[in-house]
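Input record (Table S2, row 499):
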Amino acid sequence: MSSIARWKISRNSFFSLMRHERRSKSSFPSDFIGFLSHSLPSLHISTNSYDLQTHGRGESHHPHANPYAVVFPFSEQDIMQVVKICSECSVPIIPYGAGTSVEGHVNAIHGGISMNMKHFNFIQVHECDGNITDPIAKVGAGVTRKRLNYELRHTGMHFVVDPGADATIGGMAACGSSGTTAVKYGTMKDNVLGLEFILPDGTFVKSGTNSLKNSAGYDLTSLMVGSEGTLGIITSVTVKLHPIPENIVNAICVFNDLFSAAEAVVHMKQCGIQMSRCELLDQISMSAYNKYNDSANQQGLIEMEEKPTLFLEFDGLALNAVLEHVNVARKICIEDFKASDFRFTSEEKERHSIWAARHQLYYAAIRYRQGATSAIVTDACVPLSKFAILMAETAEDVKKYDVIGPCFGHAGDGNFHCILPLRDDDSEEYISRLHTINNNLILRTLEFGGTCTGEHGVGYGKIEYLPQQYGNGCMNMMKTIKRSLDPRNIMNPGKILEF
Ligand SMILES: Cc1cc2nc3c(=O)[nH]c(=O)nc-3n(C[C@H](O)[C@H](O)[C@H](O)COP(=O)(O)OP(=O)(O)OC[C@H]3O[C@@H](n4cnc5c(N)ncnc54)[C@H](O)[C@@H]3O)c2cc1C
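Output record (flavin-adenine dinucleotide complex):
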């Protein structure tokens, strides 16, 4: 018998042994990793404890769950080989971008390996004599959004989806994420034209096209955007680019109460005011913002009144046209909703300091509660007509349950976050009050025809709410898709769906 035939027999019996031992033997993880490195000697595999810990938790408050190992593939070929071995041995694979997700998405709750995509770091644009000819870029899944925009800086174009965190484009596609700019440019679902990905059976698939419209067949790109690593591993993403606006004006507007601020946003949108960002911070968020700026001694940041405040951005080709929108917005806020202050600026340094502070708010909100190390982060999104009432009722709940919970969010989309900071020594009773607030918020959201997650995704933190949001028809269809593409349930098991 040839050595190859002998190897095939031993490899096949190893697979069946592994499937059996996975359930029964505590040495399984190290045996499996030994087998993986022996089978793929050129693959970069890490089992050092720092890598295991950082890849087993993301930014969430959910219990950490380390993977057996972290693999760092360099090519599609590497991924296909790993996927085939994992599939044979029924070992989970958890794709990993930058680990900034907040609902336990990357935690290895059923064991398995984490697959870090950082070596997929290419950026391709269609260029002729230094000019971009098509407003698109094909980007490796591991490229972060800040790096993409840095590399594009000479082209006059940029990638617009901005979740604040420096996430990877692959992770953002996988979570269907968005952020402050969605009010004008939409979410990842609106900005991804095509994908390349590898299915759980090791097949390479290319979906979508380079054209800005496409009505051919099932929309597999949209199926993968928001699939959170449960259907396959994305290796590249073709995204839309937009021109960097010539003129940008930022405004800050202070209100006496949260309800009026939220209502003002609804009116501005109804009047057709074009905003590129529209963020609302409640009074506690403004205190957290000031306290964080003081303690971090951030120079150049403005001390703000501690009242509900709108942060607005307007952009466009001609300054006059932009200022027309600013003026109507000012009128609505001051005259119709009795805002006490409305300031605006087009000066670049001031603008940057306003948004730098807004982007730090997640960490400012956690630090606002002394000793807090993480937080339950809510992510409700409702029709605009219900936004004011939902945000005001949540702020009431925070008072009623006597906890710290700054509320802020993307008011122009009807999406906001209540950050409920957690300390390691919190009593069960305190934590249960936080969960009650989160649960009340989600139930109200669903009653209003909204969603339990506007941008963060389900991970395993929101699994229980999906059937309530969608009902049996949708849930069965999702399970059928998952089962047919991933019958062994190796792709990020225990996320989005439990079965
Ligand atoms: C301070 C802060 C602010 C934030 N603000 C926002 C916000 O405003 N809007 C918003 O949408 N989100 C926000 N987030 C959440 C987070 O940034 C997004 O969910 C982001 O999309 C995660 O990207 P990532 O690269 O970090 O992915 P990871 O956290 O590494 O992974 C997230 C999920 O995607 C999967 N995945 C990652 N890469 C791939 C791939 N190549 N193929 C298949 N699956 C993959 C993973 O398996 C996992 O399920 C915020 C987070 C923080 C910490």
